[in-house]
Amino acid sequence: MLTIEWQPLTVDLGYDVPEIVREAGLDARYEESLQRSATFFNDMQGQFPQQSQYVVALAFRIRYTIQMNAREAMHLIELRSGPQGHPSYRRVAHEMARLIRDEAGHRAIAGAMRYV
């Protein structure tokens, strides 16, 4: 039942600078490299729209939609919400758990998730 639909890669959604990069004092170099990627992408996009995706640095945000059943949601949320996970997808996993509980009203499913 799990289906994922990816949107084309682009630089339009921006990026985050990881805290560890800031702490190391490398944030200017990091952002400079991402700006080069964005410039290259923008230069290519007009003539080569499909190929331009290959120059997008993977630090840029990616938009996608995902559909899953309750079991799949529980597995994904419990797996990706732990402290060992990357902060960007940990935030998404915690928000998914909150939405299941508060917006969808599936308190029993939310309560069954023990490792969020």
- Radius of gyration over C-alpha positions, nearest whole angstrom: 18 Å
Number of strands: 2
What is the straight-line distance between the termini? Answer: 22 Å
Name the shape in a single word.
flat
User: What structural class results from the helix and strand content?
Assistant: mainly alpha
- Quaternary structure classification: single chain
Give the gist of this structure.
This protein has 116 residues and is mainly alpha-helical. The chain has helices spanning 19-23, 27-45, 70-80, 87-103, 107-112; strands spanning 3-6, 64-67.
Description:
With 116 residues, this protein is mostly helical. It has helices spanning 19-23, 27-45, 70-80, 87-103, 107-112, and strands at residues 3-6, 64-67. The protein contains 5 helices and 2 strands, in the order βααβααα. A two-stranded antiparallel sheet has the order 1-2. The two termini are 22 Å apart.
Blueprint (SSEs and pairs):
Elements: E1 3-6, H1 19-23, H2 27-45, E2 64-67, H3 70-80, H4 87-103, H5 107-112
Antiparallel strand pairs: 1-2
Helix pairs in contact: 3-4
Features:
116 residues; mainly alpha; two-stranded antiparallel ribbon; 7% strand; flat
